[in-house]
Design goal:
By secondary structure, this protein is of the alpha+beta class. The protein has 5 helices and 17 strands. The strands form 4 sheets. The protein has a 6-stranded mixed sheet, with helices on one face. Strands 11-12-13-16-15 form a 5-stranded mixed sheet. The protein has a 4-stranded mixed sheet with strand order 9-10-14-17. The radius of gyration is 19 Å and the shape is globular. It starts with 19 loop residues before the first strand and ends with a strand.
């Protein structure tokens, strides 16, 4: 654990104010998701993913205060790279840095936060920036079209948001595919493993019901013939309309 425990009143205005993990001074911005504290510990900003934009790290740097910050999370266990995942709060007021970055249009909500209220807060901040055409949302083409798989495949290895109509839902072995085209070797698809079905059912989502629905999906682009995104969390998929 980093630093000393602090009062949760610092972050009481946010649904993302989980257990306090400590306080510290930010010494350096490594990238849009990673901070180095003065004691050398690296903190990964939970709940967001970087937008590929040169101004994103600058936006984070501009939000860094001179004094200490508080960090909250559901665990203080570091990842395999020694980084601690947390929500970062400026001690004097309101929402975490993640929400501020999303409102500035400098990041994407990851869709991976299991706590529903916190996930909704992050999604709402991203949606507000999108409506206001702030930051990355001032440009066209930020949300990729599922019917143009080449544009998605060009983002191989990157986090993207894709929107389109699900043409069909098919099972193959332990995986269910949301297909956005008829050519599996070329068209975009979302894969969902069988172990995720309980989580989707618990959220009131029947995978088969997504057929012919318009959805927005977010995640890391892989290549499996055509471009693929694996939905490992319920929050990666959002229904935005019918056909």
């Amino acid at each position: 654990m980093v630093g000393v425990l602090v009062s949760t009143t610092i972050a009481c205005a946010s649904a993302c104010s989980f257990e306090p993990q400590g306080t510290g001074r930010i010494a350096d911005v490594i990238d849009i998701r990673t901070l180095r504290m003065a004691d050398g510990v690296e903190i990964r900003l939970a709940g967001i993913e970087p937008a590929i934009d040169e101004s994103s790290s600058a936006a984070l740097t501009a939000l860094i205060p001179d004094g200490d910050v508080a960090f909250h999370g559901d665990s203080d266990t570091p990842d395999r790279y020694g980084r601690q995942s947390a929500f970062i709060f400026v001690e004097t007021d309101g929402p975490p840095l993640q929400v501020r970055l999303l409102l500035a249009g400098a990041a994407f909500a990851s869709g991976t936060v299991p706590d529903h209220a916190c996930a909704m807060e992050l999604a709402a901040a991203e949606a507000a920036a999108r409506r206001a055409k702030t930051g990355i949302w001032s440009r066209s083409g930020v949300i990729k079209k599922a019917v143009i798989p080449g544009d998605i495949l060009a983002q191989l290895g990157r986090f993207v948001v894709v929107e389109g109509h699900v043409l069909s839902v098919r099972e193959a072995g332990n995986t269910t595919y949301l297909n956005f085209g008829r050519r599996w070797t070329r068209d975009f698809a979302v894969s969902i493993s069988r172990r995720m079905m309980t989580a989707f059912a618990g959220a009131g989502i029947t995978i088969k019901s997504l057929e012919r629905r318009r959805i927005r999906v977010r995640g890391w682009v892989e290549s499996r013939g055509g471009p693929r995104i694996e939905a490992r969390h319920v929050g990666q998929i959002e229904v935005v309309g019918d056909q």
